[in-house]
């Protein structure tokens, strides 16, 4: 790779990085160069849930894909397990960079003498913003924003269970029975022949069979309703919070007037 940052590299910020298997790793945050020769050596890539982590990935072997995104020869798992090096300080310490080189199996890490010389001369590798000293005299102030999404998880289960209970019911049922009633009629010309048809004096019995109704209880199964479980979506609003980092820009030395933005 030739020394210095090419025009194409200046546009890497914000592009998505994939490994050779096509797995998405994250978006490029910053391009890190060496102050001595201006060679790009590392990029930070936003990884993890909602891109909250910033992981160092070597520039070596990284190149644009046909769709404009970037591809690295290091797989997603290796990048995910890279040593945790914070980019907030604006420089990579000697031991941290050595751990990064070792993790990615690269050579070319600086020796102790290299770092001692750099500290003696006041030159160290720092992270450059997209509008850093290699481009113009302006400085870009950046800040992190929360990216909030949702994930679906199992919250509980519901089931229908049918069981049998026994209850007492009372029902009024009309019943009919026969009773004996004695009827008497006088002897008339109309019934005289029937009255005189038997012996004058004799013993005699007449029998009448009586009937009655009684309640009969039986049961039958009758379908009365259909019951099922139905799901419905209820939308609620929940408040979440998280820590975000923001860059601040201060002035030093003799500065006339007041700046418009001291955030």
Report on this structure.
- This protein has 263 residues and is α+β, with helices and mostly antiparallel strands.
- It has a domain at 7-128: SH3 type barrels (Roll), CATH 2.30.30.
- Helices cover 13% and strands 14% of the residues.
- It is built from 5 helices and 7 strands, in the order αββββββαααβα.
- Strands 1, 2, 3, 4, 5, 6 and 7 form a 7-stranded mixed β-sheet that branches.
- A hairpin with a 6-residue loop joins β2 (24-33) and β3 (40-47).
- The two termini are 39 Å apart.
Low-confidence residue ranges: 110-134, 258-263
Rounded to an integer in angstroms, the radius of gyration calculated over CA atoms is 49 Å
Helix percentage range: 10-25%
Choose one word for the global shape: rod-shaped
Instruction: Enter the CATH topology name of the domain at 7-128.
Output: SH3 type barrels
Name the CATH superfamily assignment of the domain at 7-128. Answer: PRC-barrel domain
| Total of helices | 5
Distance, first to last CA: 39 Å
The chain-level structural class is alpha+beta
The SSE string, one letter per element, is HEEEEEEHHHEH
CATH class type of the domain at 7-128: Mainly Beta
The averaged pLDDT comes out at 80
Tell me how many strands there are: 7
Tell me what the CATH architecture of the domain at 7-128 is: Roll
Beta fraction: 5-15%
Main sheet overview: 7 strands, mixed
InterPro entries: Bac_photo_RC_H_C, DUF2382, PRC-brl_dom, PRC_barrel-like_sf, Stress_Response_Assoc
Protein name: DUF2382 domain-containing protein
Organism: Saccharothrix hoggarensis
């Amino acid at each position: 790779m030739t020394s210095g940052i090419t025009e194409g590299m200046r546009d890497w910020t914000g592009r998505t990085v994939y490994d050779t298997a096509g797995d998405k790793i994250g978006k490029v945050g910053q391009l890190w160069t060496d102050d001595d020769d201006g060679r790009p050596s590392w990029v930070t890539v936003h990884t993890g849930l909602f891109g909250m982590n910033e992981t160092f990935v070597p520039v070596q072997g990284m190149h644009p894909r046909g769709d404009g995104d970037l591809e690295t020869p290091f797989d997603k798992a290796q990048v995910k397990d890279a040593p945790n090096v914070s980019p907030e300080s604006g420089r990579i310490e000697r031991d941290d960079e050595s751990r990064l080189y070792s993790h990615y199996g690269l050579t070319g890490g600086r020796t102790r003498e290299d770092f001692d010389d750099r500290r003696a001369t006041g030159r160290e590798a720092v992270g450059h913003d997209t509008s850093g000293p290699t481009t113009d005299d302006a400085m870009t102030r950046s800040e992190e924003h929360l990216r909030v999404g949702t994930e679906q998880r199992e919250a509980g289960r519901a089931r229908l269970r049918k069981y049998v209970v026994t209850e007492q019911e009372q029902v009024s049922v009309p019943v009919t029975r026969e009773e004996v009633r004695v009827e008497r009629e006088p002897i008339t010309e109309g019934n005289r022949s029937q009255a005189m048809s038997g012996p004058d004096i004799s013993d005699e019995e007449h029998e009448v069979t009586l009937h009655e109704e009684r309640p009969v209880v039986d049961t039958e199964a009758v379908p009365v309703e259909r019951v099922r479980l139905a799901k419905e979506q209820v939308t609620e609003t929940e408040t979440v919070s998280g820590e975000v980092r923001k860059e601040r820009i201060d002035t030093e030395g003799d500065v006339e007037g007041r700046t418009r933005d001291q955030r």
